[in-house]
């Protein structure tokens, strides 16, 4: 009885403790960083991702790659979450976060091999992250003029499939962001990107107001309405929804005719409610049946059915229309207004433009491209660019990219590390070394000579902290002049997120996983 084993975990549970757990997690994080690092920078390569349904995505956007990959290892999944958070908070820098976190963990492993305790490594890294943030704030440049915003947008879009048209796209992004700016903030949720394949990226343009990817229900409905009174409704104008579960006994042809007439009257009553409200444009999130379509057409109401929820929200915000969930509530005071609503055809694609909206803080980028893959890829690049432009408008502080600010940090953090006593110093120095991974990867991805270029870069930094790598020519140049500029917030967030993720992974010394969870 005394030797009876006691099971506190279900049979089949896998358990890795201490070093095994840590090694396993560090390796997984390094593998993930290894996968995404080849996409970093303007010379980064793309990944082709195919999901279980066979849908293909071609991208080098870190966040997209990681969200499309089916990652099982829990520590790697934590890194994926970190990248997603980075995307959510600042809209760019997702690859950098994972690459930095992977390198930090790699350096942590070296420290652990040298017998440094995990707690010392964690403390040193945390100290170094705080110092790095302070140093970045110190070297940031104040700028939020239009020219800087354009450079920030171009830098964010570099290498993301849009290079040949990036100047034009950057103009659109900056115009769109400035148009909706209010009190020093640019809420990019107000900008919608409408993708239209079948033309060249250079033909992309900025539309004032909202653009939706839909045509009115019928060709006989109005296609162009001035002084639009807009109703938005989440209520179907269909018979099947009126007569749910109704059971009718019909015993004669007269009765049947009556029944049809009644049904017709019900639909007419519903359409009359729309007409009585004074609306001449109706966006309905639900269905509209043929009979209703007929009466709406007769009433001259430009009608759209099954409009996406996100479009409904945008229309509401831009035109001041209030969403009606019961048609009985539809009245004049629920209507929004726009100076001009019209249908237009781009290539063979029909789009509806809602312009001169009540709220002028709405704009849309109509993104053109030869194929769906092109527009999807460029749409992600524009998303990143909008994020960084908004961050720069808000904060007004930028850093010099192309490895310049990282090399400066490496140097200054080393100097700082020398002033810290004890073993923590070793962790700070390793942290500094880890940040070299950004310029090194930019150089590697461009197929350039890493050792020589990094040495040149460090030497040049004795003279100026603006020097970085021109990955196209393989020279070290003034990156401020080259226009490679990034918002301070993206870099700070990347360091903080990478630091927090590596700390979280380093603190795990026991992994208990349900049967088959790790396979
Ligand atoms: P992330 O998802 O981390 O933003 P990117 O693939 O966008 O990754 O690469 C960003 C890195 O590329 C930054 O370090 C930035 O400074 C650098 N970069 C961007 N444009 C250039 C350029 N023209 N020359 C050199 N480096 C550049």
Automatic annotation (TrEMBL):
PROSITE patterns, alphabetized: TCP1_1, TCP1_3
Keywords from the UniProt entry: ATP-binding, Chaperone, Nucleotide-binding
One term of GO molecular function: ATP binding
Entry-linked Gene3D superfamilies: GroEL, GroEL-like equatorial domain, TCP-1-like chaperonin intermediate domain
Highest taxon, organism lineage: Archaea
InterPro entries documented for this protein: Chaperone_TCP-1, Chaperonin_TCP-1_CS, Cpn60/GroEL/TCP-1, GroEL-like_apical_dom_sf, GROEL-like_equatorial_sf, TCP-1-like_intermed_sf, TCP-1_chaperonin, thermosome_alpha
Protein family according to the UniProt entry: Belongs to the TCP-1 chaperonin family.
Role played: Molecular chaperone; binds unfolded polypeptides in vitro, and has a weak ATPase activity.
Protein name per UniProt: Thermosome subunit
Organism: Methanobrevibacter gottschalkii DSM 11977
